[in-house]
TrEMBL record:
It comes from the Bacteria. The lineage of its organism: Bacteria, Bacillati, Actinomycetota, Actinomycetes, Streptosporangiales. Residues 20-80 form the RNA polymerase sigma-70 region domain. One of its GO terms (biological process) is DNA-templated transcription initiation. This is RNA polymerase sigma-70 factor (ECF subfamily). Belongs to the sigma-70 factor family. ECF subfamily.
Amino acid sequence: MNTIDVREAVGRAHREEWARLVAALTRRFGDLDIAEEAAADAFAVAVRRWPDDGVPPNPGAWLTTTATRKAIDRIRRESKRDRKHRQARMTYDDRPGTPEPIGDERLRLIFTCCHPALAMESRVALTLRLVGGLTMAEIARAFLVQESTMGQRITRAKAKIKAARIPYRVPSAHDLPARVSGVLAVLYLVFNEGYLATGPGTDPVRHDLTAEAIRLTRLIHALVPGDGEAAGLLALMLMTEARRTARLSGSGALVPLGEQDRGTWDAELIAEGHQLVRRRLASGEPPGPYQILAAINAVHTSARDVRDTDWPQVVALYDQLAALDPSPVVALNRAIAVAELDGAEVGLALVDRLGDRLAGYHAYHATRADLLRRLERDDEAHQAYGRAIELAGNTAETAHLTRLRDRLPVAHNAPSATVIPEQA
């Protein structure tokens, strides 16, 4: 087996086994540091040995055995074996009378990473690292902070889990509803990282992360079937994932929603997402943000062509969302929809009001660039595209923006390439 084949095998094993491996080691040893380091050591050994020994028939079992040995060796070296074993029993907290609704190791891990005792940024960072397997550099880029800063943040979060004796288990039925919203917020951000990956050396779309986020969200939805936001987030993810294969061109550039081949969308995922949206509407309960975002996605995926999009309905839904979440990003997405309904000049006026709050956000500059292009203000559009390209961290998005900028001299009569928000 050549080096490229081995590298692909290791990469595939990392995508498929990392979260399960860390979860299993955490359950056994009761220590996130030991679990993460032992898992990383096991993959390092695989990189060294698999080229000579060959990829084992069951990579997951091989990695588990290797990581377990590494963890035990570390405990022995530190001469803390008895204390670690006691801590494992305390952290695992699997006492009689507290059965878990779903016995999934990765679900235990995500509820630990998303514990309310931790700050939201720490929850997301831990989940991306321990469940998603992202590197520290990739997570730091997603948070727009230095890698050393992110490393310290994750180290402090793991230390707090240990000091506060946060149990490694799915919450009881009594505590579950209050804990779900925090987990959903983390899963949404994990899905977004896979949907439009930020790492400069990673694939622009990371199906492993989107698939894991959907899998875990399905588990949460099964835990609390009456929770509207869990259903809404699942619907949102499914309808977004349905468009995955249409989102990249043959050259690896991002294809905006309005230009995608809708015949390649996954009809089953869209139908499942629409059904979830309809059920929530039929419940008569006031929708939360995820349900509204899912409804917006349902409008987009119901149109056979971008020209058939019900833009008044999209704007109305954004009005509802803005009432719940008056963030500048929501306002930007609403402005994009308004531009489709009332024209580029009206949309640009709304976008320009957000400059102070979104100056470091690439989508703000990309949106301005597109609207300026449509208004034939080419010099300003060129500058805006340049700033968007500087800020964009995704290779496919950078390629798309570069293509649009390079078309500016002859783009006056081209079809609109509006940057319709993919997540909206």
